[in-house]
Task: inverse folding
């Protein structure tokens, strides 16, 4: 994997937490930050997929509601409808 060095400004308190966690896990700060960024990006992708799924479910629920109304309209004995003549 090709890498590139960047400058990053973070609060001192966050750097202290990174140092502490990296030491506890015997990892580099760079490795910790890389993993955090990958996890953040993956989480965003999951959130987008979940939101897409919710939109699709809502669309299907609307279609099912419409279908149910149409079925109920024609299955109601008080409702009359004309049958189309057969050829």
Result:
């Amino acid at each position: 994997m090709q890498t590139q060095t960047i400058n990053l400004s973070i609060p001192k308190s966050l750097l202290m937490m990174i140092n502490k966690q990296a030491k506890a896990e015997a990892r580099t700060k760079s490795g910790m930050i890389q993993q955090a960024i990958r996890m953040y990006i993956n989480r965003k992708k999951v959130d987008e997929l979940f939101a897409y799924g919710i939109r699709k479910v809502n669309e299907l629920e609307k279609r099912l509601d419409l279908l149910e109304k149409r079925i109920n309209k024609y299955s109601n004995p008080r409702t009359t409808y004309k049958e189309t003549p057969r050829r």
Q: What stands out?
A: The CA atoms of residues 69 and 77 lie 14 Å apart. The two ends are 71 Å apart (CA to CA). Residues 13-75 form one domain. The chain has one domain: 13-75.
